[in-house]
């Protein structure tokens, strides 16, 4: 191959398989099976960027000298720095390089080389150079090869992006399909649930209609029973009136026969001791002779008098016998003129406090039973009392809707807590001595802050009278018993009900903890006593000693014996270990309260017969 004629511009390096010209003008070489092809080797030099001179920016200290702090100067200096930086950036900007498109002749040469058509290439180059030498062809109109490859690359890139988007959309469609299936399943589940609820509602409506019809069938029977009840009440009232009338006649006859003396006949006299009186007759010949008329016939008046004397004599005899029995079994200290409503033991000393219906409370020394202190101030009967943990103070609850705090060293009332709308049945001290809790007939309980003298919380939840209240030892847990047949456990810090215990069928009169606090005992108006597991809040055992009402329950210090005060005058002692029940009989009427001594050896009870009895 001959070299190109003189005056012809050097041809660019043809790109063969592995031979090409880089954008920067550097020649890349590749080795093929036939070797490298050159028309003319030309070295293209390009100004290196390393030979460019850059203006060095001096690192001046632009800090403001000390003592010359001036805002305007600082702003001026910052502005000058910004202008300098802008000028330097404009000077250092390099012009962008234009990517030259490939010429037509280069494209044809490269194509022939790649296809291995060397003879065609030689012919093309010979004719091409001849045309160039003749200069008879205008090469400007030929232009460059259209950048089809660039367009193909762009199309391929766009195709790839579209494929990626398509894949993304397919994934999104699959995810949407899964969500659609999940939503359809949830829809089906809720639809079935709705159908089941509708069925249950229809069933409840049908049951409610049946119950209404059933209740309506009982209304005539209830109406008849009400009428019978009213008729019996009327008969009872008439019987009471007849009885009162008969008693009035008997009393009048007794007064008349006492003052009338006919034919030297002395009428029988009813003595104060209600013993049988003798009838004596005096005759003229046998003066002073007396005889009993046992075999003589009795009239209606004499018969009524005899029956009245026998009834009164029997009651007196029974009363004397019971007092004798109680004195033999333990004795009775009649320290109250009125029935004691509640009795409590001093936490440390052998003192006993009793509250009574005469609006007084009394401190009694044990075992002598002498009254040491008496407190008055309430305007109605006293229902309960409780010692301060230190034993120096006393809290009393009353029917006048108040709670009073007493200083036992002075015997004076120090604070009156008012807030209940009805009678207060019970009160209790917290173990810290700063709070008092009360239970009332107004269906609420209250927690009082003694230091601030105000109500901290009012506990709502019971639907009937709250009869008893007690703090769990050394904690913020509060236990209440109510006439709505439930027990409730409260958090005294928040004033909220934590748990309600159901099981009693009648009004719950009292509830208390064991000294260890793991068992709760409660009694109701039908004499049923229940034991509850406080940790699990479930019933353990139920003891029925009714039908007389159980007024109060109390544990001994060991927690093994439970005493219940009953309305029939009997005290029931339950041994929790053996399960045996013992009865203490001695009170003539209802027993209101029971309490054990400090060592548990003795038991004290207060009843409506006006006595406090000691059981050994």
TrEMBL record:
GO terms for biological process: axoneme assembly. Keywords: Coiled coil, Repeat, WD repeat. SUPFAM superfamilies: WD40 repeat-like (SSF50978). GO terms for cellular component: axonemal central apparatus. The keyword Coiled coil applies. This is Sperm-associated antigen 16 protein isoform X2. Residues 152-186 form a coiled coil. The gene is Spag16. Residues 276-333 are annotated as: Disordered. Transmembrane segments: none annotated. Residues 282-296, 304-325 have a biased composition (Basic and acidic residues). Gene3D superfamilies: YVTN repeat-like/Quinoprotein amine dehydrogenase. WD repeats lie at residues 375-416, 417-458, 459-500, 501-535, 584-616.
């Amino acid at each position: 191959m001959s070299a190109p004629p003189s005056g012809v511009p050097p041809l660019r390096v043809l790109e063969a398989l592995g031979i090409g010209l880089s954008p920067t003008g550097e020649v890349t070489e590749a080795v093929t099976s036939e070797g490298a092809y050159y028309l003319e080797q030309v070295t293209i030099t390009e100004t290196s960027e390393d030979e460019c001179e850059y203006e060095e920016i001096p690192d001046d200290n632009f800090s403001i000298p000390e003592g010359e702090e001036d805002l305007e100067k600082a702003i001026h200096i910052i502005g000058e720095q910004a202008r300098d930086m802008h000028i330097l950036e404009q000077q250092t900007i390099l012009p962008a390089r234009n990517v030259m498109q490939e010429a037509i002749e280069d494209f044809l040469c490269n194509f022939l080389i790649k296809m291995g058509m060397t003879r065609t290439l030689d012919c093309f180059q010979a004719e091409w150079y001849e045309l160039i030498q003749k200069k008879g062809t205008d090469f400007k109109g030929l232009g460059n090869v259209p950048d089809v490859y660039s367009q193909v690359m762009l199309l391929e890139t766009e195709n790839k992006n579209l494929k990626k988007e398509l894949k993304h959309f397919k994934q999104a469609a699959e995810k949407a399909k899964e969500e659609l299936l999940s939503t359809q399943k949830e829809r089906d589940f809720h639809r079935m649930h709705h159908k089941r609820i509708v069925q249950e509602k229809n069933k409840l409506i049908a049951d409610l209609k049946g119950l209404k019809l059933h209740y309506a069938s009982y209304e005539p029977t209830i109406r008849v029973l009400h009428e019978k009840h009213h008729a019996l009440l009327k008969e009872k009232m008439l019987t009471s009136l007849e009885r009162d009338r008969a008693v009035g006649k008997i009393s009048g006859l007794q007064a008349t026969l006492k003052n009338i003396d006919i034919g030297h006949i002395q009428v029988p006299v009813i003595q104060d001791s209600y013993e049988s009186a003798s009838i004596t007759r005096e005759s003229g010949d046998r003066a002073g002779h007396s005889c009993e008329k046992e075999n003589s016939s009795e009239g209606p008046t004499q018969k009524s008098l005899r029956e009245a004397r026998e009834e009164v004599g029997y009651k007196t005899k029974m009363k004397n016998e019971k007092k004798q029995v109680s004195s033999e079994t333990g004795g009775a200290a009649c320290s109250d003129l009125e029935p004691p409503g509640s009795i409590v033991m001093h936490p440390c000393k052998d003192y006993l406090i009793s509250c009574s219906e005469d609006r007084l409370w009394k401190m009694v020394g044990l075992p002598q039973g002498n009254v040491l202190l008496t407190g008055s101030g309430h305007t109605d009967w006293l229902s309960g009392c409780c010692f301060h943990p230190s034993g120096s103070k006393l809290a009393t609850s009353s029917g006048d809707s108040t709670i009073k705090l007493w200083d036992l060293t002075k015997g004076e009332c120090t604070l009156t807590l008012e807030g209940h709308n009805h009678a207060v049945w019970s009160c209790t001290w917290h173990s810290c001595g700063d709070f008092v809790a009360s239970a009332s007939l107004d269906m609420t309980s209250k927690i009082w802050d003694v230091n601030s003298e105000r109500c901290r919380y009012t506990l709502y939840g019971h639907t009937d009278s709250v009869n008893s209240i007690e703090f769990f030892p050394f904690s913020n847990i509060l236990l209440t018993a109510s006439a709505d047949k439930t027990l409730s456990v409260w958090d005294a810090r928040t004033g909220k009900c934590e748990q309600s215990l159901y099981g009693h069928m009648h009004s719950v009169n009292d509830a208390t903890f064991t000294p260890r606090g793991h068992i709760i005992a409660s009694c109701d108006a039908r004499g049923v006593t229940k034991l509850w597991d406080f940790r699990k809040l479930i019933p353990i055992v139920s003891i029925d000693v009714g039908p007389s009402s159980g007024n109060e329950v109390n544990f001994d210090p060991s927690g093994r014996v439970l005493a219940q005060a009953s309305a029939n005058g009997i005290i029931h002692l339950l041994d929790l270990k053996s399960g045996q029940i013992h009865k203490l009989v001695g009170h003539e009427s209802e027993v209101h309260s029971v309490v054990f001594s400090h060592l548990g050896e003795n038991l004290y009870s207060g009843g409506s017969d006006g006595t406090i009895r000691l059981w050994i």
